[in-house]
Specification:
Blueprint: E1 21-23, E2 30-32, E3 42-46, H1 53-71, E4 75-80, H2 84-93, E5 100-102, H3 107-111, H4 121-129, E6 131-132, E7 142-143, H5 144-155, H6 161-170, E8 176-180, E9 186-191, H7 206-215
Parallel strand pairs: 3-4, 4-5
Antiparallel strand pairs: 1-2, 3-8, 6-7, 8-9
């Protein structure tokens, strides 16, 4: 998809997973890839800031999938691209059992090669003409900006100053998910919009994730 191409090449299956060490959102020090190496596989989900309604919805969805992954011996880590204190405020009122780490500078996204497209006139036009309904919660697909506004309204979410600053720095960064084995090798990867802009905001289904996890032990 020409509108979302960048020089970055996402980390693919069979490639060693880049190391990271990020502040834990619950305040318990840092969370690093090294914590899992040799101990358990890891499902790593890289999100952008909490200004992104699709990310917030996907994090909530992951909370329902995490126990099933754990049954298969797979740990889960969601990386949210906002300062730790902003994330702590959000999750104080929307508690989750998920392990969460903060990466406001998108260092992990860059390390894993997730594209950040250039906001060209062509991309802006494509965003205006592409209709999405990522999780099926809207009555019908809407243009991207309208879809985001509609989900914010459904969720009763009002962005704060940190969210606004995150948006300005991050947009239009894409998201991705990686399944990493005990040896620290990526075994499955999913990058947002790999099939085109119609995939904006989509998150892998529970079945897709669990199927990939089962393949680790096959």
């Amino acid at each position: 998809m020409n509108a979302t191409q960048e020089m970055l090449s996402p980390v693919s299956a069979g490639t060693p997973a880049p190391d990271f060490a990020l502040p834990a959102i619950d305040g318990s020090g840092t969370i690093a890839l090294q914590d899992f190496r040799g101990r358990s596989p890891l499902f790593l989900a890289l999100f952008i800031g909490l200004w992104c309604p699709f990310c917030r919805r996907s994090i909530a969805e992951m909370a329902g999938t995490e126990p099933a992954l754990k049954e298969q011996g797979v740990e889960t880590l969601c990386v949210v691209a906002t300062p730790p204190e902003n994330a702590r405020l959000y999750f104080k009122y929307r508690p989750t059992r998920l392990r969460l780490a903060a990466d406001p500078g998108l260092t992990t996204h860059r390390a894993y090669g997730l594209p950040k497209p250039e906001a060209t006139p062509e991309l802006m036009h494509a965003l205006e003409t592409t209709r999405i309904n990522p999780d099926g919660s809207l009555p019908e697909p809407l243009p991207v900006e309208q879809a985001a506004e509609a989900i914010n309204k459904l969720d009763g979410y009002v962005a704060n100053e940190t969210d606004q600053a995150d948006l300005q720095r991050q947009w239009p960064q894409l998201k991705g998910q990686f399944l990493i084995d005990r040896a620290g090798v990526v075994r499955w990867a999913n990058v947002e919009c790999s099939e085109g802009l119609s995939g904006l905001g989509k998150f892998p289904s529970r079945d897709e994730i669990l199927t990939a996890a089962r393949a680790l032990s096959s």
